[in-house]
Amino acid sequence: MHHTIYKTIITGLLFVQFLTGQDLGKDIPKTNISPILKSLILPGTGENSLNFNHRGRVFLLVESTLWFSLISSVLMSDILQREFQTSAAEHANILPSGKNREFWVDIGNYESREIFNQEHLRFREFDAVEKYENDEWNWNWDGATSKRKYFESLRIKSYVWSLTGKFLIGGIVINHIVSAIDVLYLKNRNRSTESFTFSPYFNFTANSFTYNLFYNF
User: What is the pLDDT of residue 23?
Assistant: First the structure.
């Protein structure tokens, strides 16, 4: 997961150099890309190329904030995942490798595989019992129930952070599209007598962002 993030950041930095027309080598000419395409790849760069620097900075700020939040979410999810897997290995006598999400959910809800099997056999859910037949899928929480509940709290937090990251990815995609639409508006606004104002707004207190569209008659 970490390697994927680092590769994405490096790729993004190369795109920035490419879009801004910086020299990557003596024999590589500067690029001349459509402002719409620039903003579609990196929000704000299209606005900057049209000399709307303030609007460009806002989109770039939103983009960098979303990426920072995404990386933080992924890292937190990964840290908590390692913690709950370590806790299960120590107190439930399991081997973490090769286990799927369904297994982690089940061991967080049942004290042992035996109790899990007994309950599902009562409801004639034989498929659920068969999936944990091998000893490698066995678990048995030692001591008080608090250890299992602590594990479950870590697992849920890890999942929430992971889900937050997925939503942030959607926000990044939206920011790219909206920036491209904003550049299209800036390029064509002089062709119409109508006046529009379209800009993103980031609320640092609430950790959220929105897009505002104003129409002046």
Answer: 42
